[in-house]
Amino acid sequence: MLKYELVAQYIQQFIKENSFQAGDKLPNVESFKNKYEVSKSTVIKALEELEKNGIIFQTQGSGIYVRGNKRKGYMNLLISHGFKDEIENATVSYKVNKLEELIPSSNVREQLKLREDESVYFLERIIYVNKEILCKEISYFNKDIVLFLNKPIAEGSIFHYLENNLKVKIGFSDIYFQVDKLNEHEANILKLQEDDPCLRYEQIFYTTTGIPFDYSQLVYHYGNAQFYIPAHK
Amino acid sequence: MLKYELVAQYIQQFIKENSFQAGDKLPNVESFKNKYEVSKSTVIKALEELEKNGIIFQTQGSGIYVRGNKRKGYMNLLISHGFKDEIENATVSYKVNKLEELIPSSNVREQLKLREDESVYFLERIIYVNKEILCKEISYFNKDIVLFLNKPIAEGSIFHYLENNLKVKIGFSDIYFQVDKLNEHEANILKLQEDDPCLRYEQIFYTTTGIPFDYSQLVYHYGNAQFYIPAHK
Fold first, then answer.
1. Min Cα separation B89/chain A (Å)
2. Cα angle at B8 between B231 and A76, to 5 degrees?
3. What ipTM was reported for this prediction?
4. Where does the HTH gntR-type domain lie (chains A, B) (predicted)?
5. Per-residue model confidence (pLDDT) at position A186
6. Residues A133-171: tens digit of each pLDDT
7. Where exactly are the structural domains of chain B?
8. Is A179 in contact with B181 (Cβ distance < 8 A)?
9. pTM of the prediction?
10. CATH topology of domain A3-66
11. How close, in Å, is residue B186 to chain A by CA atoms?
Protein backbone atom coordinates (compact mmCIF):
# COMPACT_ATOMS: atom_id res chain seq x y z
CA MET A 1 0.00 0.00 0.00
CA LEU A 2 1.32 3.44 -0.93
CA LYS A 3 1.64 6.21 1.66
CA TYR A 4 -1.21 8.31 0.26
CA GLU A 5 -3.50 5.24 0.31
CA LEU A 6 -2.71 4.79 3.99
CA VAL A 7 -3.44 8.46 4.71
CA ALA A 8 -6.73 8.12 2.77
CA GLN A 9 -7.63 5.23 5.09
CA TYR A 10 -6.72 7.31 8.16
CA ILE A 11 -8.91 10.21 7.01
CA GLN A 12 -11.81 7.86 6.26
CA GLN A 13 -11.41 6.39 9.75
CA PHE A 14 -11.30 9.93 11.19
CA ILE A 15 -14.62 10.77 9.45
CA LYS A 16 -16.19 7.61 10.86
CA GLU A 17 -14.93 8.05 14.43
CA ASN A 18 -16.16 11.64 14.58
CA SER A 19 -19.53 10.71 13.06
CA PHE A 20 -19.23 13.44 10.42
CA GLN A 21 -22.35 13.79 8.28
CA ALA A 22 -22.99 14.94 4.70
CA GLY A 23 -22.01 18.60 4.32
CA ASP A 24 -19.82 18.69 7.45
CA LYS A 25 -16.56 20.57 6.95
CA LEU A 26 -13.29 18.72 7.55
CA PRO A 27 -9.96 20.14 8.76
CA ASN A 28 -7.76 21.63 6.02
CA VAL A 29 -4.78 20.10 4.22
CA GLU A 30 -2.27 21.73 6.57
CA SER A 31 -3.94 20.21 9.60
CA PHE A 32 -4.02 16.67 8.11
CA LYS A 33 -0.36 17.14 7.13
CA ASN A 34 0.59 17.81 10.76
CA LYS A 35 -1.77 15.19 12.19
CA TYR A 36 -0.31 12.34 10.11
CA GLU A 37 3.22 13.76 9.72
CA VAL A 38 3.33 13.45 5.93
CA SER A 39 4.00 15.86 3.09
CA LYS A 40 1.39 18.25 1.73
CA SER A 41 1.38 16.44 -1.63
CA THR A 42 0.64 13.11 0.10
CA VAL A 43 -2.41 14.68 1.79
CA ILE A 44 -3.55 16.17 -1.54
CA LYS A 45 -3.25 12.75 -3.25
CA ALA A 46 -5.13 11.08 -0.39
CA LEU A 47 -7.92 13.65 -0.68
CA GLU A 48 -8.13 13.13 -4.46
CA GLU A 49 -8.50 9.39 -3.80
CA LEU A 50 -11.30 10.00 -1.26
CA GLU A 51 -13.02 12.40 -3.68
CA LYS A 52 -12.87 9.80 -6.47
CA ASN A 53 -14.40 7.19 -4.18
CA GLY A 54 -17.30 9.47 -3.24
CA ILE A 55 -16.25 9.98 0.41
CA ILE A 56 -15.59 13.74 0.31
CA PHE A 57 -15.91 16.72 -2.03
CA GLN A 58 -13.67 19.77 -2.28
CA THR A 59 -14.72 23.26 -3.27
CA GLN A 60 -12.24 25.73 -4.67
CA GLY A 61 -11.02 28.09 -1.98
CA SER A 62 -13.62 26.97 0.51
CA GLY A 63 -12.63 23.62 1.92
CA ILE A 64 -13.14 19.90 2.25
CA TYR A 65 -16.59 18.47 3.00
CA VAL A 66 -18.05 15.05 3.77
CA ARG A 67 -20.12 13.70 0.90
CA GLY A 68 -22.49 11.72 3.07
CA ASN A 69 -23.65 8.24 3.86
CA LYS A 70 -24.24 5.91 0.98
CA ARG A 71 -26.96 3.29 0.84
CA LYS A 72 -25.94 0.00 2.43
CA GLY A 73 -25.32 -3.12 0.36
CA TYR A 74 -24.45 -1.38 -2.92
CA MET A 75 -21.20 -2.23 -4.72
CA ASN A 76 -19.03 0.75 -5.60
CA LEU A 77 -18.06 0.08 -9.22
CA LEU A 78 -15.18 2.56 -9.19
CA ILE A 79 -13.25 0.64 -6.58
CA SER A 80 -11.90 -2.08 -8.83
CA HIS A 81 -10.06 -4.08 -6.19
CA GLY A 82 -12.15 -7.16 -6.52
CA PHE A 83 -15.32 -7.82 -4.62
CA LYS A 84 -14.09 -7.97 -1.04
CA ASP A 85 -13.56 -4.23 -0.78
CA GLU A 86 -16.51 -3.21 -2.89
CA ILE A 87 -19.20 -4.44 -0.54
CA GLU A 88 -18.72 -3.17 2.98
CA ASN A 89 -19.11 -5.59 5.85
CA ALA A 90 -20.09 -8.46 3.56
CA THR A 91 -18.65 -11.98 3.44
CA VAL A 92 -17.57 -12.80 -0.10
CA SER A 93 -16.81 -16.38 -1.15
CA TYR A 94 -15.89 -18.06 -4.42
CA LYS A 95 -16.67 -21.47 -5.90
CA VAL A 96 -14.29 -22.48 -8.67
CA ASN A 97 -16.08 -24.51 -11.36
CA LYS A 98 -13.23 -24.67 -13.84
CA LEU A 99 -9.63 -23.55 -14.13
CA GLU A 100 -7.54 -24.49 -17.16
CA GLU A 101 -5.08 -23.22 -19.76
CA LEU A 102 -6.45 -22.87 -23.26
CA ILE A 103 -6.08 -21.00 -26.56
CA PRO A 104 -8.87 -18.42 -26.44
CA SER A 105 -11.36 -17.30 -29.09
CA SER A 106 -10.49 -14.41 -31.39
CA ASN A 107 -12.69 -12.03 -29.35
CA VAL A 108 -10.77 -12.77 -26.14
CA ARG A 109 -7.48 -12.57 -28.04
CA GLU A 110 -8.44 -9.12 -29.29
CA GLN A 111 -9.47 -7.83 -25.84
CA LEU A 112 -6.22 -9.04 -24.29
CA LYS A 113 -4.10 -8.11 -27.36
CA LEU A 114 -2.53 -11.59 -27.54
CA ARG A 115 -0.68 -13.39 -30.31
CA GLU A 116 -2.57 -16.17 -32.11
CA ASP A 117 -0.79 -19.06 -30.40
CA GLU A 118 -0.82 -17.61 -26.88
CA SER A 119 -2.70 -19.53 -24.21
CA VAL A 120 -4.51 -17.97 -21.25
CA TYR A 121 -5.74 -19.04 -17.85
CA PHE A 122 -9.48 -19.66 -18.17
CA LEU A 123 -11.42 -19.47 -14.91
CA GLU A 124 -15.10 -20.01 -14.20
CA ARG A 125 -16.40 -19.12 -10.74
CA ILE A 126 -19.59 -18.49 -8.83
CA ILE A 127 -19.33 -15.55 -6.45
CA TYR A 128 -21.40 -15.42 -3.27
CA VAL A 129 -22.11 -12.50 -0.95
CA ASN A 130 -23.28 -13.52 2.50
CA LYS A 131 -23.95 -16.97 0.98
CA GLU A 132 -26.34 -15.57 -1.66
CA ILE A 133 -25.35 -15.96 -5.33
CA LEU A 134 -24.03 -12.63 -6.59
CA CYS A 135 -22.91 -13.64 -10.09
CA LYS A 136 -21.39 -16.14 -12.45
CA GLU A 137 -17.95 -15.07 -13.63
CA ILE A 138 -15.74 -16.15 -16.53
CA SER A 139 -12.22 -14.71 -16.69
CA TYR A 140 -9.34 -14.93 -19.12
CA PHE A 141 -5.90 -14.00 -17.79
CA ASN A 142 -2.88 -12.95 -19.83
CA LYS A 143 -0.10 -15.30 -18.72
CA ASP A 144 2.62 -12.71 -19.38
CA ILE A 145 1.26 -10.84 -16.35
CA VAL A 146 -0.60 -13.52 -14.41
CA LEU A 147 2.36 -15.88 -14.32
CA PHE A 148 0.72 -18.55 -12.21
CA LEU A 149 -2.78 -19.44 -11.02
CA ASN A 150 -4.21 -22.45 -9.21
CA LYS A 151 -7.45 -23.44 -7.52
CA PRO A 152 -6.58 -22.34 -3.95
CA ILE A 153 -5.63 -18.88 -5.24
CA ALA A 154 -8.79 -18.65 -7.36
CA GLU A 155 -10.89 -19.49 -4.29
CA GLY A 156 -9.88 -16.11 -2.83
CA SER A 157 -9.28 -12.59 -4.07
CA ILE A 158 -7.14 -12.93 -7.19
CA PHE A 159 -6.41 -9.20 -7.20
CA HIS A 160 -4.98 -9.37 -3.72
CA TYR A 161 -2.69 -12.17 -4.95
CA LEU A 162 -1.72 -10.26 -8.08
CA GLU A 163 -0.82 -7.10 -6.18
CA ASN A 164 0.87 -8.65 -3.17
CA ASN A 165 2.49 -11.81 -4.53
CA LEU A 166 3.09 -11.12 -8.22
CA LYS A 167 3.58 -7.35 -7.66
CA VAL A 168 1.27 -6.52 -10.59
CA LYS A 169 0.56 -2.80 -10.77
CA ILE A 170 -3.16 -2.54 -11.52
CA GLY A 171 -3.90 0.65 -13.40
CA PHE A 172 -7.37 1.04 -14.86
CA SER A 173 -10.24 -0.88 -16.40
CA ASP A 174 -12.98 -0.61 -19.00
CA ILE A 175 -16.46 -1.66 -17.86
CA TYR A 176 -19.25 -2.40 -20.36
CA PHE A 177 -22.70 -3.57 -19.35
CA GLN A 178 -26.26 -4.03 -20.46
CA VAL A 179 -29.43 -5.68 -19.26
CA ASP A 180 -30.58 -8.94 -20.86
CA LYS A 181 -32.55 -12.15 -20.29
CA LEU A 182 -30.92 -15.29 -18.85
CA ASN A 183 -30.51 -18.35 -21.05
CA GLU A 184 -31.31 -21.79 -19.63
CA HIS A 185 -27.72 -22.66 -18.70
CA GLU A 186 -27.20 -19.36 -16.83
CA ALA A 187 -30.58 -19.65 -15.11
CA ASN A 188 -29.59 -23.09 -13.77
CA ILE A 189 -26.32 -21.77 -12.37
CA LEU A 190 -27.92 -18.69 -10.77
CA LYS A 191 -30.91 -20.74 -9.54
CA LEU A 192 -33.34 -18.50 -11.45
CA GLN A 193 -35.74 -19.03 -14.35
CA GLU A 194 -34.91 -18.82 -18.05
CA ASP A 195 -35.74 -15.31 -19.39
CA ASP A 196 -35.38 -13.76 -15.93
CA PRO A 197 -33.51 -10.42 -16.04
CA CYS A 198 -29.76 -10.17 -15.58
CA LEU A 199 -26.92 -7.71 -15.90
CA ARG A 200 -24.29 -8.74 -18.47
CA TYR A 201 -21.09 -7.10 -17.42
CA GLU A 202 -17.66 -7.12 -19.07
CA GLN A 203 -14.50 -5.71 -17.56
CA ILE A 204 -11.01 -5.45 -19.02
CA PHE A 205 -8.26 -4.68 -16.52
CA TYR A 206 -5.00 -3.02 -17.50
CA THR A 207 -1.67 -2.57 -15.72
CA THR A 208 -0.49 0.99 -15.03
CA THR A 209 1.47 0.75 -18.29
CA GLY A 210 -1.64 -0.14 -20.29
CA ILE A 211 -1.23 -3.92 -20.72
CA PRO A 212 -4.59 -5.77 -20.59
CA PHE A 213 -4.26 -8.78 -18.26
CA ASP A 214 -7.81 -9.81 -17.28
CA TYR A 215 -10.91 -9.98 -19.45
CA SER A 216 -13.96 -10.99 -17.39
CA GLN A 217 -17.57 -11.63 -18.33
CA LEU A 218 -20.03 -11.58 -15.45
CA VAL A 219 -23.73 -12.35 -15.26
CA TYR A 220 -25.27 -10.79 -12.16
CA HIS A 221 -28.23 -12.21 -10.22
CA TYR A 222 -30.90 -9.49 -10.52
CA GLY A 223 -32.18 -9.97 -7.00
CA ASN A 224 -28.82 -9.91 -5.22
CA ALA A 225 -26.75 -7.22 -6.95
CA GLN A 226 -27.03 -3.47 -6.41
CA PHE A 227 -24.55 -0.96 -7.75
CA TYR A 228 -23.27 2.47 -6.80
CA ILE A 229 -21.16 4.96 -8.77
CA PRO A 230 -19.83 8.21 -7.34
CA ALA A 231 -19.74 10.41 -10.46
CA HIS A 232 -18.09 13.81 -10.97
CA LYS A 233 -18.62 16.54 -13.45
CA MET B 1 -16.74 26.35 -20.52
CA LEU B 2 -13.57 26.65 -18.45
CA LYS B 3 -10.16 26.99 -20.09
CA TYR B 4 -8.97 23.50 -19.09
CA GLU B 5 -12.16 22.00 -20.53
CA LEU B 6 -11.42 23.70 -23.83
CA VAL B 7 -7.84 22.42 -23.81
CA ALA B 8 -9.17 18.92 -23.04
CA GLN B 9 -11.37 19.23 -26.16
CA TYR B 10 -8.37 20.37 -28.24
CA ILE B 11 -6.27 17.43 -27.11
CA GLN B 12 -9.11 14.99 -27.80
CA GLN B 13 -9.43 16.51 -31.29
CA PHE B 14 -5.65 16.21 -31.72
CA ILE B 15 -5.82 12.47 -30.86
CA LYS B 16 -8.62 11.98 -33.40
CA GLU B 17 -6.99 13.94 -36.23
CA ASN B 18 -3.72 12.06 -35.86
CA SER B 19 -5.51 8.68 -35.63
CA PHE B 20 -3.66 7.77 -32.44
CA GLN B 21 -4.38 4.22 -31.28
CA ALA B 22 -4.40 2.50 -27.86
CA GLY B 23 -0.92 2.58 -26.34
CA ASP B 24 0.40 5.38 -28.59
CA LYS B 25 2.46 7.96 -26.72
CA LEU B 26 1.33 11.59 -26.80
CA PRO B 27 3.50 14.73 -26.63
CA ASN B 28 4.42 15.84 -23.11
CA VAL B 29 2.85 18.57 -20.93
CA GLU B 30 5.41 21.17 -22.01
CA SER B 31 4.62 20.63 -25.67
CA PHE B 32 0.82 20.95 -25.15
CA LYS B 33 1.51 24.08 -23.06
CA ASN B 34 3.33 25.70 -26.00
CA LYS B 35 0.92 24.39 -28.65
CA TYR B 36 -2.18 25.86 -26.97
CA GLU B 37 -0.46 28.82 -25.27
CA VAL B 38 -1.82 28.08 -21.80
CA SER B 39 -0.27 27.52 -18.39
CA LYS B 40 1.23 24.21 -17.32
CA SER B 41 -1.45 23.78 -14.64
CA THR B 42 -4.21 24.20 -17.26
CA VAL B 43 -2.67 21.38 -19.32
CA ILE B 44 -2.37 19.20 -16.21
CA LYS B 45 -6.06 19.78 -15.35
CA ALA B 46 -7.07 19.05 -18.95
CA LEU B 47 -5.09 15.77 -18.86
CA GLU B 48 -6.73 14.80 -15.54
CA GLU B 49 -10.12 15.38 -17.18
CA LEU B 50 -9.20 13.21 -20.17
CA GLU B 51 -7.85 10.50 -17.86
CA LYS B 52 -11.11 10.53 -15.85
CA ASN B 53 -13.11 10.17 -19.05
CA GLY B 54 -11.09 7.17 -20.20
CA ILE B 55 -9.39 8.91 -23.16
CA ILE B 56 -5.79 8.71 -21.95
CA PHE B 57 -3.70 7.22 -19.16
CA GLN B 58 -0.58 8.64 -17.55
CA THR B 59 2.29 6.66 -16.10
CA GLN B 60 4.57 8.16 -13.49
CA GLY B 61 7.77 9.46 -15.05
CA SER B 62 7.07 7.82 -18.38
CA GLY B 63 4.46 9.82 -20.22
CA ILE B 64 0.93 10.21 -21.56
CA TYR B 65 -0.67 7.43 -23.59
CA VAL B 66 -3.89 6.95 -25.55
CA ARG B 67 -6.28 4.58 -23.83
CA GLY B 68 -7.86 3.28 -27.01
CA ASN B 69 -11.09 3.13 -28.92
CA LYS B 70 -14.20 2.39 -26.98
CA ARG B 71 -17.11 0.36 -28.29
CA LYS B 72 -19.61 2.40 -30.25
CA GLY B 73 -23.08 3.17 -28.90
CA TYR B 74 -22.26 2.83 -25.20
CA MET B 75 -23.13 5.66 -22.79
CA ASN B 76 -20.25 6.85 -20.62
CA LEU B 77 -21.80 7.04 -17.15
CA LEU B 78 -19.04 9.23 -15.73
CA ILE B 79 -19.85 12.12 -18.05
CA SER B 80 -22.88 13.47 -16.23
CA HIS B 81 -23.73 16.25 -18.64
CA GLY B 82 -27.04 14.84 -19.67
CA PHE B 83 -27.56 12.45 -22.52
CA LYS B 84 -26.44 14.52 -25.50
CA ASP B 85 -22.75 14.26 -24.67
CA GLU B 86 -22.83 10.72 -23.35
CA ILE B 87 -23.71 9.04 -26.61
CA GLU B 88 -21.41 10.07 -29.41
CA ASN B 89 -22.92 10.94 -32.78
CA ALA B 90 -26.45 10.07 -31.64
CA THR B 91 -29.59 12.17 -31.96
CA VAL B 92 -31.25 12.52 -28.58
CA SER B 93 -34.83 13.76 -28.23
CA TYR B 94 -37.25 14.19 -25.34
CA LYS B 95 -41.01 13.83 -25.02
CA VAL B 96 -42.44 15.64 -21.99
CA ASN B 97 -45.38 13.72 -20.51
CA LYS B 98 -45.87 15.86 -17.44
CA LEU B 99 -44.39 18.96 -15.84
CA GLU B 100 -45.86 20.40 -12.65
CA GLU B 101 -45.06 21.82 -9.22
CA LEU B 102 -45.94 19.59 -6.29
CA ILE B 103 -45.09 18.75 -2.68
CA PRO B 104 -43.00 15.57 -2.99
CA SER B 105 -43.08 12.34 -0.98
CA SER B 106 -40.87 11.99 2.10
CA ASN B 107 -38.34 9.88 0.14
CA VAL B 108 -37.85 12.64 -2.45
CA ARG B 109 -37.73 15.26 0.32
CA GLU B 110 -34.96 13.30 2.01
CA GLN B 111 -32.90 12.87 -1.18
CA LEU B 112 -33.13 16.60 -1.94
CA LYS B 113 -32.84 17.65 1.73
CA LEU B 114 -35.97 19.83 1.53
CA ARG B 115 -38.22 21.31 4.21
CA GLU B 116 -41.61 19.66 4.66
CA ASP B 117 -43.61 22.39 2.90
CA GLU B 118 -41.22 22.92 -0.02
CA SER B 119 -42.53 22.20 -3.50
CA VAL B 120 -40.44 20.87 -6.39
CA TYR B 121 -40.65 20.76 -10.17
CA PHE B 122 -41.85 17.29 -11.12
CA LEU B 123 -41.00 16.19 -14.64
CA GLU B 124 -41.83 13.00 -16.52
CA ARG B 125 -40.17 12.41 -19.88
CA ILE B 126 -39.45 9.72 -22.44
CA ILE B 127 -35.93 9.92 -23.86
CA TYR B 128 -35.19 8.69 -27.37
CA VAL B 129 -31.85 7.95 -29.03
CA ASN B 130 -31.98 7.89 -32.82
CA LYS B 131 -35.79 7.64 -32.44
CA GLU B 132 -35.58 4.44 -30.34
CA ILE B 133 -36.88 4.57 -26.76
CA LEU B 134 -33.90 4.80 -24.40
CA CYS B 135 -35.71 5.23 -21.09
CA LYS B 136 -38.56 6.63 -19.05
CA GLU B 137 -37.40 9.37 -16.70
CA ILE B 138 -38.96 11.00 -13.63
CA SER B 139 -37.14 13.98 -12.11
CA TYR B 140 -37.64 16.15 -9.06
CA PHE B 141 -35.90 19.54 -9.05
CA ASN B 142 -35.04 21.66 -6.03
CA LYS B 143 -36.56 25.08 -6.82
CA ASP B 144 -33.90 26.94 -4.80
CA ILE B 145 -31.46 25.97 -7.56
CA VAL B 146 -33.69 25.25 -10.54
CA LEU B 147 -35.48 28.60 -10.30
CA PHE B 148 -37.62 28.13 -13.38
CA LEU B 149 -38.62 25.30 -15.72
CA ASN B 150 -41.14 25.04 -18.53
CA LYS B 151 -42.05 22.60 -21.30
CA PRO B 152 -39.85 24.05 -24.08
CA ILE B 153 -36.81 23.89 -21.77
CA ALA B 154 -37.67 20.33 -20.69
CA GLU B 155 -37.85 19.26 -24.33
CA GLY B 156 -34.10 19.85 -24.59
CA SER B 157 -31.04 19.34 -22.41
CA ILE B 158 -31.97 20.70 -18.97
CA PHE B 159 -28.34 20.56 -17.85
CA HIS B 160 -27.30 22.79 -20.71
CA TYR B 161 -29.97 25.28 -19.58
CA LEU B 162 -28.94 25.03 -15.91
CA GLU B 163 -25.27 25.64 -16.67
CA ASN B 164 -25.62 28.31 -19.33
CA ASN B 165 -28.77 30.19 -18.36
CA LEU B 166 -29.10 29.72 -14.61
CA LYS B 167 -25.31 29.49 -14.07
CA VAL B 168 -25.71 26.43 -11.84
CA LYS B 169 -22.34 24.90 -10.98
CA ILE B 170 -22.85 21.17 -11.32
CA GLY B 171 -20.49 19.33 -9.01
CA PHE B 172 -21.02 15.61 -8.58
CA SER B 173 -23.68 12.93 -8.46
CA ASP B 174 -24.59 9.64 -6.78
CA ILE B 175 -25.74 6.87 -9.11
CA TYR B 176 -27.55 3.78 -7.79
CA PHE B 177 -28.87 1.01 -10.01
CA GLN B 178 -30.13 -2.52 -10.12
CA VAL B 179 -31.80 -4.88 -12.58
CA ASP B 180 -35.51 -5.63 -12.22
CA LYS B 181 -38.66 -6.67 -14.10
CA LEU B 182 -40.98 -4.10 -15.71
CA ASN B 183 -44.45 -3.57 -14.28
CA GLU B 184 -47.40 -3.26 -16.67
CA HIS B 185 -47.42 0.56 -16.69
CA GLU B 186 -43.70 0.79 -17.47
CA ALA B 187 -43.96 -1.93 -20.12
CA ASN B 188 -46.67 0.08 -21.90
CA ILE B 189 -44.55 3.22 -21.92
CA LEU B 190 -41.40 1.43 -23.14
CA LYS B 191 -43.43 -0.66 -25.64
CA LEU B 192 -42.21 -3.89 -24.05
CA GLN B 193 -43.91 -6.77 -22.17
CA GLU B 194 -44.66 -6.91 -18.46
CA ASP B 195 -41.83 -8.78 -16.61
CA ASP B 196 -39.31 -7.94 -19.34
CA PRO B 197 -35.91 -6.94 -17.90
CA CYS B 198 -35.02 -3.33 -17.16
CA LEU B 199 -32.38 -1.25 -15.44
CA ARG B 200 -33.73 0.84 -12.54
CA TYR B 201 -31.42 3.77 -12.18
CA GLU B 202 -31.44 6.61 -9.67
CA GLN B 203 -29.20 9.66 -9.80
CA ILE B 204 -28.90 12.55 -7.36
CA PHE B 205 -27.04 15.60 -8.69
CA TYR B 206 -25.30 18.09 -6.42
CA THR B 207 -23.88 21.56 -6.99
CA THR B 208 -20.15 22.09 -6.43
CA THR B 209 -21.04 23.20 -2.89
CA GLY B 210 -22.92 19.97 -2.17
CA ILE B 211 -26.55 21.07 -2.56
CA PRO B 212 -28.72 18.32 -4.10
CA PHE B 213 -30.84 19.82 -6.88
CA ASP B 214 -32.04 16.95 -9.09
CA TYR B 215 -33.28 13.52 -8.02
CA SER B 216 -34.07 11.37 -11.05
CA GLN B 217 -35.47 7.85 -11.40
CA LEU B 218 -34.92 6.21 -14.76
CA VAL B 219 -36.13 2.93 -16.21
CA TYR B 220 -33.97 1.88 -19.16
CA HIS B 221 -35.15 -0.14 -22.16
CA TYR B 222 -33.06 -3.33 -22.00
CA GLY B 223 -32.66 -3.58 -25.75
CA ASN B 224 -31.61 -0.01 -26.40
CA ALA B 225 -29.30 0.97 -23.54
CA GLN B 226 -25.62 0.01 -23.23
CA PHE B 227 -23.29 1.48 -20.67
CA TYR B 228 -19.59 2.18 -20.33
CA ILE B 229 -17.52 3.16 -17.29
CA PRO B 230 -13.83 4.06 -17.44
CA ALA B 231 -12.64 2.92 -14.00
CA HIS B 232 -9.37 3.62 -12.23
CA LYS B 233 -7.55 1.94 -9.42
1. 19
2. 15
3. 0.91
4. 1-69
5. 97
6. 999 999 999 999 999 999 999 999 899 899 999 999 999
7. 3-66, 75-228
8. no
9. 0.91
10. Arc Repressor Mutant, subunit A (1.10.10)
11. 15
